[in-house]
Task: structure prediction
Amino acid sequence: MKKLIMCLAGLMTAVSLAACTPTQVTESAPQAAKQNPDGITPEMVAESNAAIKREADSAAPVYDVAFIYVPNSDATGLTREEVSLEAMTEQVLVDCLVEKGVLEADTTVNSFDIEGGEKPGPGVSADAVGSGERIGTLDLSGIPESGTAGEVAMLNAIANTFIENYELDKLKLLINGENYESGHIAHEDGDYLEFIDKYEKF
Result:
């Protein structure tokens, strides 16, 4: 019995000493550093994403908006369609008119010139407009033949398309350098096409 009491006393002393022994503390890195060993901060990630977006935006093409006029089904008026173009040129507008069936395939622009002052508006004072009207001269390689109503609708579609997109007062139409002439309509030197405001019904 005495031996048992001595063993128990020795065991309790060992446990007491173990409890009093200081525990070595190992410092650990912050949780964020464990997950982010390269030291990348949320601010750095946000800036990188913003730079990628800026680069993508600058690489995206910028489109011009143009308006194309097309004769309606019975040639009694026009419809106005908005299109987005990578670059608006006179040939691109003619190609749009070809695509819409207004002009024949392979119609090309021989030349397109604008004479006259600028339109007054933002950044352009009335004094800087210049003298005379703003007149465009469009010389095409050809034009389709049609009945009188269809021809009038076609000419108005060409006129409205070019006059609106180039902010003209009127348009002179030539075919291979000559005044426009067909079996129904013949233009003289002083004849011009003008914008039709009430284009939906002539």
Summary: The chain is about 35% helix and 20% strand.
